[in-house]
Amino acid sequence: MITAGHRLTQYAHGGGCACKIPPGELEAIVAGLIGPGSAGLLVGLDDGDDAAVVRIDGDTAVLSTADFFTPVVDDAYDFGRIAAANALSDVYAMGGRPVLAINLVGWPRDLLPTELLREVLRGGLDIATEAGCPVAGGHSIDDPEPKYGMAVTGLAHPDRLLRNDAARAGQAITLTKPLGVGVLNNRHKATGEVFEQAIASMVTLNREACAAALEAGLRAATDVTGFGLLGHLYKMARASGVTAVIDAAAVPYLDGARQALADGFVSGGTRRNLDWVRPNLESGVDEDELLLLADAQTSGGLLLAGEIATGGVVIGEFIPRRDAVIQVR
Ligand code: CO
Ligand code: CO
User: Which pLDDT does position 16 carry in this prediction?
Assistant: First the structure.
């Protein structure tokens, strides 16, 4: 455990993707702030996709995304690995391959030793290296709260993008990582207990999930991060003009997630996610089950329209649009 006597999570007001600006609030802020664009912009801000995409020529599209957040875990090296896997994920969620990353750093120089920042950066470098993506430079500022992430550039074929507006009725809903890191991270922040299963899940790249989706000829994907499964599924179903039906019993969870919920470690971000989706939700399950489905993930898996050969669990299906954009049963 690399902490140099400091519990990194105690320097953060919120953790991981749970420190995102709430989804409804963000949509209101950016509404109408869409430039004249260009003919080459394939994916912009309109439907809240994972990365912006421009077409360079018939075979090449460039993807651009950035993600950074406050510490989700106390271990500096693990925090770096998690933040990098999470930033790289938005490229995989679009069907791309990352080709260049730069670091984004906020660090309280007066409060935390720079050796810890070095460990954060080392973690980020190790995960980017695993992804075959060079890390060169970046930007750092003195900041009252530690923050780390990356801006990542990726490449994809313009005709083989995985978009969040391309789900069709009749397709299965597939999830490639179990849920529950939000509630486990929240427990870690409160008690210091370490959940290796959550760390292992968060540092796992979505590269294989992306490859499996492309291999299966799928067209629609997003990654499950701060808005939780319900939030990201809502965005995907809304953008695609379909209704998503979830079989709650089929959704996989990390060990300890249910217990952490029962013990009261639900984050404010998770509650905001559920509040945001609720007007468009028809539910046959209890509130606890909905909170688990809305659990704010950090570096979560891919959510796919369609099935893949390995590495995914089918948790429901898309059907023609009904009154509710999401049905849980
Ligand atoms: Co994303
Ligand atoms: Co993102």
Answer: 60
Q: What is the pLDDT of residue 254?
A: 98
> How remote is the CA of residue 192 from the centroid of ligand 1, in Å?
28
Q: How much distance in Å is there from the Cα of 160 to the middle of ligand 2?
A: 20
| CATH code of residue 228 | 3.90.650.10
What is the domain extent for residue 99? 8-156
- Provide, rounded to the nearest whole percent, the portion of the chain with pLDDT above 70: 96
1 found inside a domain: no
Domain boundary among 100, 122, 156: 156
Three-state DSSP string of the chain? CCCCCCCHHHHCCCCHHHHCCCHHHHHHHHCCCCCCCCCCEEECCCCCCCCEEEEEECCEEEEEEEEEECCCCCCHHHHHHHHHHHHHHHHHCCCCEEEEEEEEEEECCCCCCHHHHHHHHHHHHHHHHHCCCCEEEEEEEECCCCEEEEEEEEEECCCCCCECCCCCCCCEEEECCCECHHHHHHHHHHHCCCCHHHHHHHCCCCHHHHHHHHHCCCCEEEECCCCHHHHHHHHHHHHHCEEEEECHHHCCECCCHHHHHHCCCCCHHHHHHHHHHHHHEEECCCHHHHHHHCCCCCCCCEEEECCCCCCCEEEEEEEECCCCCEEEC
* Interval 149-194: pLDDT, tens: 999 999 999 999 999 999 999 999 999 999 999 999 999 999 999 9
- pLDDT of 18 > 80? The answer is no
Around ion ligand 1, residues with a beta carbon closer than 5 Å are: 50, 90, 223
Interval between CA 90 and ligand 2 midpoint (Å)? 5
Report the pLDDT value the prediction gives residue 69, as an integer from 0 to 100.
94
For residue 19, the domain's CATH number is 3.30.1330.10
